[in-house]
Design goal:
Radius of gyration: 15 Å
Order of helices and strands: EEEEEEEE
Largest sheet: 4 strands, mixed
Mean pLDDT: 81
Number of helices: 0
Strand content: over 45%
CATH topology: Immunoglobulin-like
Oligomer: single chain
Helix content: under 10%
Number of strands: 8
CATH class: Mainly Beta
CATH architecture: Sandwich
Number of domains: 1
Structural class: mainly beta
Length: about 120
């Protein structure tokens, strides 16, 4: 569990590469709303490609979080990995649930999740 400072503007999700470290692997990712409201609780991320470079084990994804004074209870959204690039497969876990609790003193917290991208050269 991550407990960002009250002024922390981002939630971090780590994508971990397993298998070999040779070459670049890619994957597509995006956010999807749960009970959190796009544009009020978080900035939506449309589908985009991310890369884990040769010799690298992880890729950090950052999602902008917004302070929503109208939110009175916890709210959720998802980070989804739904496509692997050539030479890679997606691991078993493809969705991370991010929970933004009800504002109490303006502090936010979120779940830190790890995904897997398997290299299959």
């Amino acid at each position: 569990m991550i407990h960002p400072a009250p002024d922390e503007p981002l939630v971090q999700v780590v994508v971990r590469r397993s298998g070999g470290l040779r070459g670049v692997v890619s994957f597509r990712w995006r956010t999807a709303p749960g009970t959190a409201i796009r544009g009020s609780d978080f900035n939506a991320v449309t589908a985009r490609t991310a890369y884990i470079g040769a010799g690298r084990r992880t890729k950090d994804l950052f999602i902008p979080i917004l302070t929503n004074p109208a939110r009175t209870e916890s709210a959720t959204f998802y980070v989804i990995i739904d496509e692997a690039g050539p030479g890679a497969t997606i691991g078993r876990r493809t969705i991370a649930l991010i929970t933004l609790p009800a504002p109490r003193g303006r502090a936010l917290s979120a779940t830190r999740s790890r995904f897997g991208v398997e290299q299959t050269w």
